[in-house]
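Might I ask for a little of your time on a matter of protein folding? What I wish to show you is a protein chain and, alongside it, a tokenised description of its three-dimensional fold. I should value your view on which stretches of the chain appear to form regular backbone elements. You will find the record immediately after this paragraph:
***
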Amino acid sequence: MQPTKGAELLTEEEVLSSARVTTLFPEPEMRNALIQNGVLAPDKDGALRVRFVGVAVAGGRSFQILPKIFPASSANVTSTMRQVIRALRRYARWQPQHRDEAPFLDPTASHTDLNALALADWLIRDYLSAGIYRRLRDREEISGSGQVSWRRTIERMVPVLSSGRPVYVDTVTRSAAKDRDYFVSRLHRQIVESAAQSFGYLLGYGPLNLDHEPFEPFGDLPALSLCQARIRQEMRDAFSDRAMQLLPMLLAWLTAIEKAESANLALYGTSSFYDVWEKACALALGNERDQWQVHIPRPTWRSAEGHIQAADTFAPDIVTRIRDGADEHLLIADAKYYRLSMPPHLQGQPGVNDVAKQLWYQRCLSGAARDRGLTRTYNIFVVPGPEHEEGFWSDGQVDLSGLPETTVKVKRLSGLQALERFADGTALDAERVRAVVMAA
């Protein structure tokens, strides 16, 4: 599968006219496959709306798909897309329970045929950290530099007597040597080269040169059945941690790339990027939600016969503590992957249900916070913002009367910085969070 190098740039929520759809995806089967896999969704008048964030190879074309919070006219699309891919990569590793929501990020997914890009990413990262797979071969020599094997020496060598005792002039030595012609090592090199050449640039990797490796590639890849048989044999014979991790991935790659070539389609990303944003905000601010969830009431149902059962309830996105000198306060935050703007017109705002729910959380948790010695409870929406030197800043509020608490503040978190910090695993500066949250 050899896609074109120049990637088309799309943006999540972008509407593609019917004419552009036909230009980008002339085959109806490809359009249907993209709709079925959540990349595109039907819109008005034959148009299609982009619902995906990540990268794709479809019909021989390469696509980079930005989150909706970044304009396609971004000053540096390449660096922005690199941070998006890094965030997706961490999301796939950090939240394995969400892999069913994002199967195209999971190299081990068994319920999709389109994860060749995720396998390519895994194989390239594995090579960069551990190199080409090597199988050491035992080698016997006469008086070599290895360790003496006395059992083999006694079996094979004739001693001379010295003072009535046997002396072995020559000994059998054993050492481990790298097998430069080892089939699996050569296959590993060829697979890594192929993955890097086909998909490396889409996944944010620079050129990968393996000419220094001692294992010669095959030229033409041996028959699929032979490659699979040799890998399976190696899986039976090798028990190192590296072998147990790498060999199944090589086997999976052979199947995945064949399916990708047959479908002419491979995907790396998610149609649920809002969940990536929520995880990025939780890491940026810190999250202790599990410690506070017990204080969120559950609806209790009672039958006419008197049977009682509690049902599931809401769960806030983020609950954490912020320190202010000797005092501690509670912060309740809702991470919204919305493009909120005003003026001239209010658009992209959280709905009234979201506002009421945040105020209800505050009412439920403020008493528990006081019982734990916390002084105040703050309530915020966190929405993506443009690039901003401060990274995290205040941007208005929403008020809703009818509850004891009536205000939810709006805070902006720089989209690019949020994804970069998420990928790096670093939170926002605690003092900056305190200052912004407590700002009037």
